[in-house]
From TrEMBL:
Pathway(s) served: Organic acid metabolism; glycolate biosynthesis; glycolate from 2-phosphoglycolate: step 1/1
Annotated PANTHER family: PHOSPHOGLYCOLATE PHOSPHATASE
Coiled-coil region(s): none
Top-level EC class: hydrolase
Domain of life: Bacteria
Lineage, broadest ranks: Bacteria, Pseudomonadati, Bacteroidota, Flavobacteriia, Flavobacteriales
Statement: the UniProt record of this protein carries the keyword Flavoprotein: no
Family according to the record: Belongs to the HAD-like hydrolase superfamily. CbbY/CbbZ/Gph/YieH family.
Cited Gene3D superfamilies: HAD superfamily/HAD-like, Putative phosphatase, domain 2
Pfam family, one: HAD_2
Molecular function via GO: hydrolase activity
Keywords from the named record: Hydrolase
Protein name: phosphoglycolate phosphatase
CDD domains assigned to the protein according to its UniProt record, in alphabetical order: HAD_like (cd01427)
Length: 206
């Protein structure tokens, strides 16, 4: 029996991938298109990882250059400004999952554990008026694996009654590292990895 649900945010509650693609292209617009597209591929493949990791990856693995923590924070702040302006639009919400959350937030214990910047994430949830549906809303720079572990420990949740819903391999890995069942959503490449795959929340009975 499921009592506690840990939610990823991007791709599960908010359809933000294209907006985040734009954000990375914008903050790195002075670089070669091919290099930027390598980053976009990495970003899409690792949806659950934070912008801090992706910015470092762009410099260290693609550009083969060092980048200071201060430079990472400056770029991450510019990225966040773009996200705050665009992602507060209601059109980006995924109604399939949102309607389930609205109908069931009093029945389950809901938490968001995201690769998105925590302050930005909390800002967006407040502006989108969905923050009241969740007990906690946490994000990067803390790794998702640690966020999941912290929620379970802080609230004393039984792992047998707790699941994680996500749309990326990183969500799957965070669930498995914490011995949770993983419910895949909005990404058919997760079909074989998922303990259960959600095609639509209208069909799900926890």
């Amino acid at each position: 029996m499921v009592k506690n649900i840990l939610w990823d945010f991007d791709g599960v509650i908010l359809n933000s991938m294209q907006v985040r693609d734009y954000g990375f292209r914008k903050i790195f617009e002075g670089h070669e298109t091919e290099q930027i597209e390598q980053l976009i591929h990495y970003h899409r493949t690792n949806g659950g990882w934070s912008r801090y990791v992706k910015i470092r990856y762009f410099y260290e693995e693609i550009l083969k250059k060092n980048i200071s923590e201060k430079e990472v924070l400056v770029l991450a702040s510019a990225f966040s400004d773009i996200m705050r302006n665009e992602l507060i639009k209601l059109e980006h919400l995924i109604l399939d999952s949102l309607n389930f959350i609205k109908d069931n937030y009093k029945k389950f214990n809901f938490h968001i554990v995201s690769g998105s910047d925590e302050k930005e994430l909390q800002f967006l949830c407040e502006k989108l008026e969905i923050d009241s549906f969740f007990i906690t809303i946490t994000g990067s720079p803390t790794p998702k694996n640690s966020l999941v572990k912290s929620v379970i420990k802080s609230f004393g949740y039984d792992k047998d009654t707790t699941i994680l819903i996500g749309d990326s391999i990183n969500d799957y890995e965070a669930a498995k590292k914490n011995s949770l069942r993983f419910y895949g959503y909005n990404n058919f490449s997760l079909l074989e990895l998922s303990d259960f795959y959600i095609n639509s929340f209208k069909e799900v009975k926890f």
